[in-house]
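Q: Please design a sequence for this.
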């Protein structure tokens, strides 16, 4: 029986870590990984899709592990969860874990240029690229991105996306459509940083302010162009996702970085004021200094990417003003000063609690930030090259029907 390409593909990355929690040898850091000995949130997420009305859809789940040692057990547990949770769904469910890598790499290697590196499952950006590459191989017209620590309570969630994605607003195409996260109690505000060390690093404050400007007020339109998106409530047209990759140098915050990249190539994102998904993650298992380390590397890299822009055909220059209030406030010229002040305060806080090793890691963060700031500047040219390779690969996928049919048969569960 032929498996048809879906009009709508809901993609869910799922992140796993050792049952013992974060390990020193972890190759990547995930904010909210599922520990191997816990039930996790994936089943709840998949089961919630059963309430969706109005449009058919398939589901793609891509599983990533924080260390290679747990990949086999992660794949086994993920398959078991999917086998039970998918019973409420009418469409096909595709599952991609470490054991499926070689199969898909062989298929992609038939296409010029080689796309092996775009089906890696280590790190946020790599997993996102894997979801988009597999979406292209499956043949999806629309990609609807949600995360495994979320669930849908609105039966019209998919209909709101289908009715707006790809339309035009004010002469601009809605290439990407974003919604907001809501908490289980129905509020949308992200918890603000109350700790004294966060005085110069009020990230959640600026996220809330951006949401407020986009969503509050009866006079605001249903769709507004946005400087901020979150990958757990985001939909992309095929025209966009086959042309723009996630930047693999970004350790976290890859969703907003994707918006920046896409803006440089002329694509626009809009916030839908009535599109929302419940975000109910488990506690973050990692130390604050580790998340701060990823943030500063990301913000420095993105700032350099903006500064290095040069005029090129079919590209737009993205300014800080285009990204206000968030993430612009962390891409400005005072970013290093903000980070150093915050790191000092965080180290003092650790020392006051007797956590000397964590305080030492804060000092290491300073060295890492300086190195990131002073390294050779090639972030913009690297993005341009990455986009060329990505677009050529997806052009090959679009022209190879046999390849797409083979992948659908291999991954369907």
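A: Design:
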């Amino acid at each position: 029986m032929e498996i048809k390409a879906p009009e709508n593909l809901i993609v869910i990355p799922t992140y796993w870590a050792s049952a013992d929690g974060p390990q020193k040898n972890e190759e990547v850091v995930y904010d909210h990984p599922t520990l191997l000995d816990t039930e996790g949130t994936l089943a709840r997420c998949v089961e919630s899709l059963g309430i969706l009305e109005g449009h058919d859809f398939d589901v793609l789940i891509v599983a990533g592990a924080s260390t290679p040692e747990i990949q086999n057990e992660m794949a086994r547990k993920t398959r078991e969860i999917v086998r039970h949770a998918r019973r409420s769904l009418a469409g096909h469910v595709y599952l991609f874990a470490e054991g499926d890598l070689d199969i898909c790499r062989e298929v992609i290697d038939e296409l010029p240029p080689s796309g092996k590196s775009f089906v890696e499952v280590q790190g946020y950006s790599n997993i996102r690229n894997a979801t988009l590459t597999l979406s292209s191989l499956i043949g999806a017209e629309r990609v609807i991105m949600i995360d495994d620590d979320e669930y849908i309570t609105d039966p019209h969630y998919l209909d709101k996306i289908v009715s707006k994605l790809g339309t035009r607003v004010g002469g601009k195409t809605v290439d990407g459509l974003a919604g907001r996260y809501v908490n289980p109690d129905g509020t949308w505000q992200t918890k603000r940083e109350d700790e004294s060390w966060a005085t110069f690093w009020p990230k959640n404050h600026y996220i809330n302010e951006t949401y407020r400007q986009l969503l509050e007020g009866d006079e605001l339109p249903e769709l507004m162009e946005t400087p901020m998106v979150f990958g757990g409530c985001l939909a992309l047209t095929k025209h966009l996702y086959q042309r723009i990759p996630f930047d693999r140098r970004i350790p976290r915050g890859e969703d907003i970085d994707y918006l920046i990249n896409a803006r440089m190539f002329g694509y626009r994102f809009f916030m839908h004021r009535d599109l929302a998904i419940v975000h109910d993650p488990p506690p973050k298992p990692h130390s604050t200094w580790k998340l701060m380390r990823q943030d500063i590397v990301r913000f420095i890299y993105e700032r350099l990417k903006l500064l290095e822009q040069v005029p090129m055909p079919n590209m737009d220059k993205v300014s800080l003003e285009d990204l206000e209030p968030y993430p612009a406030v962390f891409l400005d010229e005072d970013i290093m000063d903000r980070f150093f002040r915050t790191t000092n305060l965080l180290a003092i806080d650790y020392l006051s609690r007797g956590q000397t090793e964590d305080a030492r890691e804060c000092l290491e963060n300073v060295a890492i930030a300086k190195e990131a700031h002073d390294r050779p500047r090639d972030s913009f040219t690297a993005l341009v090259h990455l986009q060329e390779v990505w677009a050529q690969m997806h052009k090959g996928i679009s022209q190879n029907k046999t390849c797409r049919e083979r992948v659908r048969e291999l991954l369907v569960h």
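Q: Thanks. Anything notable?
A: The chain has a mean pLDDT of 91. The first helix runs from residue 42 to 48.
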